[in-house]
Amino acid sequence: MNVTDYTPSFDDYLNKTKWSDHNLIIPLLFDFYHGLEVLLKGFLVAEDIKIKTNHKLSDLHSSFETYYSNNKLSQYIEKYITQNKLPVLLNEFCEECGMSMDEYYQALKYPESTKGKPYRHTPLKYKGEQGVPFFKDMLNDIRSLRKEAVSLGRTICENV
Predict the structure, then answer these.
(1) Measuring CA to CA, how many Å separate 78 from each of 7, 57, 59, 62, 99?
(2) Which of 2, 11, 38, 128 places its Cα 20 to 30 Å from the Cα of 101?
(3) Model pTM score
């Protein structure tokens, strides 16, 4: 059967593409960045830091660095929030859309900016094989983040 001889139904299309990058990238990034926010806030709360109602990752990371400087965990976090350290896929996206990762984290939560401008995620989607190295690297970084977070948490508990 030739591809042009078959027009899939919408349900068939969804079923065949459910694990495609264009379906996974946005929820994956939302969960990842929300996890970074909660992780940073958790370590700040462990130091009895009063946290403002703030979701700005760069500010949270800066506060984290004040109390946990030169920590391996910080290096992994920086890689995903500091513009000049971003993986190529995220850096190109931010440059194309003219936004920082702080702004993009907001874009993952809401369909439009506070000024009513719709957020577009298309430049991150449909990368196919080109996006595989990003996902593999991110998976390795998530594993390392988890390991470093547990290690730092145990250090805090030992010092209490």
Answers:
(1) 45, 10, 12, 10, 16
(2) 128
(3) 0.83
- 154: number of Cβ within 10 Å: 10
Mean predicted confidence (pLDDT) in 106-131:
80
Q: Read off the DSSP letter of residue 51.
A: P
Q: Taking 80 as the threshold, does the pLDDT of residue 17 lie above it?
A: no
Task: Give the whole-angstrom CA distance, residue 83 versus residue 101.
Answer: 7
Residues whose CB falls within 8 Å of the CB of residue 3, separated by 6 or more in sequence, listed in order: none
141 Rama sector, left if φ>0, alpha if ψ -120 to 50, beta otherwise: alpha
Report pLDDT for 13.
67
| CA-based nearest residue to 160, from 57, 48, 41 | 48
* Tokens coding 44: 């700040």
CA gap 114, 134 in Å, rounded:
30
Using CA atoms, how far residue 111 sits from 103, 114, 115, 140, in Å, is: 12, 10, 11, 29
Closest CA relative to residue 107, chosen from 135, 117, 37: 117
Q: How far is residue 99 from each of residues 37, 45, 55, 81, 115, measured CA to CA in Å? A: 18, 29, 16, 12, 14
Q: What is d(CA 117, CA 112) in angstroms, rounded to the nearest whole number?
A: 5
